[in-house]
Amino acid sequence: MVVETVVVAVWAMLPAYVPNNAAVLAGGGRPIDGGRTLSDGKRALGDGKTWRGTAVGTAVGVAVALVLNRLRPVATDATGVGVPEFPLLAAVALAFGAMLGDILASFLKRRTGRERGAAFPGVDQLDFVVVSLALTLLVATEWFLATFTLPVLVAVVVLTPLLHVSTNGIAYALGLKDEPW
């Protein structure tokens, strides 16, 4: 039961786990906030949140879901676990929700005086999860409720920070990130 729950949790979240990594690799270009500052004198988002990164991250997340749909029979046979198929709307919501969560976290970082790349424990690890799940619940409710049972949600909340910290540490060690968080 635990293994099945973990397999479903990771599988169902892959379209949300991948977009921010893709955005880092493909980012750059015009910042979403256009360089604007708010009344507090701080940038709305900063240079790290770009239109290109958001578009590429979302597209890659959707592509991951489509590839997973093709691999689903093989994965089910190999693991013995019935992993979910992604309807297009759920795939888009998971991927774009992850990007939007990261954008909202950047906004919160600026409001709390944190610079780009500064650690924001808890928020850094779960921002994209909360928003991707909320958006998916809104637009693909039936699929969400069938996929994200309470045990699967608990697994996501427990596993995501561990995966986030380890993958960011690897990216930092490889020189792909400027900070290990």
Write the layout of secondary structure elements.
Blueprint: H1 2-17, H2 19-26, H3 51-79, H4 88-111, H5 123-139, H6 141-147, H7 150-173
Helix pairs in contact: 1-3, 1-4, 1-7, 2-3, 3-4, 4-5, 5-6
Give a written overview of the molecule.
By secondary structure, this protein is mainly α. It has one domain (2-173). It is 69% helix and 0% strand. The protein contains 7 helices and no strands. Helix 4 packs antiparallel against helix 5. The longest helix has 29 residues, at 51-79. It starts with a helix and ends in an 8-residue tail after the last helix. The mean pLDDT is 89.
Q: What's this entry about, in short?
A:
By secondary structure, this protein is an all-alpha fold.
Features:
181 residues, mainly alpha, globular
Record field, number of beta strands: 0
- Poorly predicted residue ranges: none
Radius of gyration: 17 Å
Helix content: 55-70%
How many helical stretches?
A: 7
Indicate the mean pLDDT: 89
Global morphology: globular
Percent strand equals: under 5%
How many domain regions?
1
Q: List the helices and strands in order.
A: HHHHHHH
Quaternary arrangement of the chains shown? single chain
Distance between the termini: 31 Å
In this structure, how is the largest beta sheet organized?
A: none
Structural class: mainly alpha
